[in-house]
Design a protein that fits this description.
6-stranded parallel β-sheet, 37% helix
Length: 307
């Protein structure tokens, strides 16, 4: 594959929705670093918040817009070379709001659209395997019908979660907790590297329908070695059970604590773990080297910060 340049034409304007979220702020930063003009669309109630001020300090144009108003969104998208969505939420956001944003991008004549996917490869999963992925798949069906060039970015799991929400690495007990096969390859990319890759893709007019990036591919057994080196103590493997057992845990947890209106209830994270540990959502044909200026953070570095 031909290496792509990291710089952007001075006339490139990228419209960014969801810019005040954790990933959105990082995407804005890397777009500006690459020389792009960035127009961040924020809800009126967020226009004076600290995140909006941070964007302004980076030279981002911050525009308050009603995301329920397609004509207003269309005006805000006018003149852009790409619309990037880093929106986060449930069906009202991922399907409904993104559809209005898509309609506005098309009406404004924007040539390219990057949806808020940023996940493992849910195109390889059956319906019902993951609630949040099903919502993105529903939006993808709408995106496929739109007269616009679309590119979804898949990055596996955010590597940062290894020291937080993802329960795999447990320093307190010196264990790597898992289900299934310890040799299954898993994809990890930090949020910063995902944002950098997204910024490069937004400024690259030749992107395909899907781009797949993994800062590091590692099995559970490799995670064991990385954690042992990072924390300076031997980690052991703790296999809780097979994938069928994990599937049963998901059903029980969802029944006991449904929390259907939460974006990431406990059972949702468990679904994600099942998708990855089964290998069904494994990223194939990686495009990690497409933008050679990006130096990817490795698992050991992330874990060492917490040691």
């Amino acid at each position: 594959m031909t290496d792509q340049t990291a710089s952007a034409p001075s006339s490139s304007t990228i419209v960014l929705a969801g810019a005040t979220g954790a990933l959105g702020l990082l995407i804005a930063h890397h777009l500006r670093r690459r020389g792009a003009a960035v127009r961040a669309l924020v809800r009126p109630e967020s226009i004076h918040k600290a995140e909006a001020e941070s964007l302004r300090l980076q030279g981002v144009e911050v525009v308050a817009v009603d995301f329920a108003n397609v004509p207003a969104l269309t005006q805000a998208c006018t003149g852009a070379s790409c619309v990037v969505s880093a929106l986060s939420g449930l069906r009202d956001i991922i399907v409904d709001t993104q559809t209005r944003l898509l309609d506005a991008a098309v009406a404004a004549g924007v040539p390219r659209f990057i949806p808020s996917d940023f996940s493992a490869d849910f195109t390889r999963l059956p319906e019902g395997a993951n609630r949040n992925f099903d919502l993105r798949r529903e939006f993808q069906r709408r995106l496929a019908q739109a007269p616009i060039q679309a590119t979804s970015i898949f990055n596996g799991m955010f590597m940062d979660l290894l020291t937080g929400q993802a329960p795999l690495v447990q320093p307190g007990i010196g264990r790597i907790v898992y289900w299934g096969n310890a040799e299954q390859p898993l994809d990890f990319t930090t949020m910063v590297d995902t944002a950098n890759f997204t910024a490069a893709a937004a400024l690259d007019s030749s992107t395909p329908r899907y781009l797949r990036v993994a800062g590091q591919v590692a099995s559970i057994r490799q995670l064991q070695a990385e954690a042992s080196a990072a924390f300076g103590q031997p980690f052991k493997l703790l296999r809780v059970g097979g994938l069928g057992f994990l599937a049963g845990m998901i059903k029980v947890t969802r029944a006991v604590v449904p929390a259907e209106k939460e974006v990431f209830p406990p059972w949702q994270g468990m679904q994600y773990m099942h998708n990855m540990l089964s290998g069904q959502a494994k990223l194939l044909h990686l495009d990690t080297s497409r933008y050679p200026d990006i130096q990817y953070t490795q698992i050991r570095e992330v874990l060492t910060r917490q040691a």
